[in-house]
Design a protein that fits this description.
0% strand; globular
Length: 489
């Protein structure tokens, strides 16, 4: 009788995997419609409501419908995401089933066109300008290239990024433009093919990243799912094709070399290459080195730290020498910290730009002091902390860096939290995953008016409020459900 009752319960159990796939299909439906209509990529407007109307600052019924459509699907997708994580042992009996599910979902978002970001066309344009026109993207913008030759002025690979990005030189570390040169060159000047290649590159990275997490965490399905079907990484990593996936890959690769292969040299090289994509990878390496030499005496700790720091600097310098001619090379990279978008400093910048710049520099200085104090404490600490303890300290500082120092904040930056969150406490894992969801939900306020925005103060306010509420709810639920250190999943 008991077996019969259990069978009835199992049959009534909601199939969250199927719901997640159906929601993914609904999410990509505008892109499918666009492609079936035979419309060109160069005419694609990076707006979730492109299939209703052209973008406008006015709030139109079409904008409202599109926003509701996006909000409804994204929130439901996030809810089902948590349900799958919570019930993963019932939903998946083997790692193979997890891999198949993640692959199916990833391919669906691979089909989705870039709907709320134009960054991929910036990548395509700068890569093509270097490969086809032979310019150095750190010194020559796409506008400069287009002004020099008639061919470039009519080149769709460059025309697609004309406007907000075309006057700006590359803002990333040298590994990324090198990748862009290769990927754009493979397209042979066809914009659709270029977009396909970049998407395929990110899809490959995503699946490899999921596998690395699976291996690093001793084949734990839960962590592969936490990363592999995270709504933000699917939306911004696979659909909008941001280069965060390469950064995540290099960080995970470094962790894999260290944890599984016990190879500090390859780990340091991998982290250095990650820093040559986005400098944030620099923040992690001291924690890895200090953990590795935690049992050594102070002088040895300092000596070994200096030696690994030297290797890190040499690898980073070699990457920069590919493009560097003089110190003007750094201008493009430094411009990002001079913009105020979606950050806690944005409300100040609206009233007084110079004041916001001063405040942001003060916050950066304060973070540097806090970070150095944390590193020095670990350096002089005699207590043998675990690897998890070191990574948890890093995670806390990374959150502080994200929300307390970056002036040009974007929702996809929260993806930086994913490579190391699996070593945190159960409560913090849930909270860190929630941040990635809330970061995108805070962004939807702009869908009503216009997707390309600057100096908006609404986003950081909404994000701050929702993060505080989420943290309070997580704390409350944790106290009710878990007594002790029981895992929430």
């Amino acid at each position: 009788m008991k077996n019969i009752e259990n069978n009835i319960i199992d049959k009534k159990q909601i199939n969250y995997k199927l719901i997640f796939i159906l929601l993914s299909v609904a999410f990509i439906s505008p892109s499918i419609v666009y492609l079936l209509q035979g419309r060109k990529i160069i005419d694609l407007v990076s707006s979730f409501t492109f299939f209703f109307t052209e973008p406008t600052w006015k709030c139109t019924p079409a904008k409202v419908i599109g926003t509701i459509f996006f909000v409804g699907i994204f929130i439901t997708l996030a809810f089902v995401y948590y349900k799958i994580i919570k019930n993963h042992k019932k939903e998946f009996t083997t790692g193979k089933k997890v891999a198949i599910f993640i692959t199916i979902v990833s391919i669906l978002f691979f089909i989705m066109l870039p709907l709320t970001s134009t960054d991929v066309f910036y990548y395509i344009g700068t890569g093509w300008s270097e490969d086809h026109y032979g310019v150095n993207p750190y010194y020559t913008s796409v506008n400069d290239v287009m002004a020099e030759t008639e061919e470039a002025a009519n080149d769709e690979m460059l025309l697609k990024m004309k406007g907000i990005w075309s006057g700006q030189t590359i803002v990333y570390g040298p590994v990324w433009p090198l990748i862009c040169k290769i990927l754009s060159g493979l397209s042979m000047g066809n914009l659709f093919v270029a977009l396909f290649i970049y998407k395929l590159f990110n899809l490959s990275l995503h699946l490899i990243n999921t596998y690395l997490i699976y291996k690093i965490t001793n084949k734990r399905n839960i962590f592969a799912l936490l990363y592999g079907i995270n709504p933000l990484i699917l939306f911004d990593g696979l659909a909008n094709v941001h280069n965060e996936l390469l950064l995540i890959f290099l960080i995970l690769l470094g962790l894999y070399f260290y944890i599984k292969k016990k190879n500090v040299t390859l780990a340091v090289i991998s982290f250095a290459l990650g820093a040559a994509v986005k400098y944030v990878a620099i923040l992690l390496i001291p924690f890895i080195i200090l953990y590795h030499y935690r049992k050594e005496k102070l002088l040895k700790k300092i000596l070994y730290s200096c030696l690994w720091a030297l290797l890190f600097i040499v690898v980073l310098a070699l990457c920069y020498l590919i493009y560097m001619r003089d110190f003007d090379f750094l201008n493009g990279i430094m411009t990002q910290q001079g913009k105020f978008v979606n950050s806690i400093f944005t409300p100040i910048a609206i009233k007084n730009f110079d004041l916001a710049l001063s405040v942001s520099k003060g916050f950066m200085l304060a973070f540097i002091v806090i970070y150095l104090v944390a590193i020095l404490k670990l350096l002089f600490e005699k207590k043998q902390y675990t690897f998890s303890t070191f990574i948890r300290k890093y995670n806390g500082l990374l959150v502080l860096f994200l929300f307390g120092t970056i002036t040009n904040f974007q929702s996809w930056y929260t993806l930086w939290l994913l490579p190391t969150m699996m070593w945190d406490s159960s409560k913090n894992i849930k909270w860190l995953a929630s941040i990635t969801i809330l970061a995108e939900l805070g962004n939807i306020v702009y869908f009503i008016a216009y997707e390309h925005y600057m100096f908006g103060a609404i986003y950081p306010i909404i994000l701050l409020i929702t993060i505080i509420i989420s943290n309070v709810l997580c704390e409350k639920k944790q106290r009710i459900i878990n007594k002790g250190d029981k895992r929430w999943y």
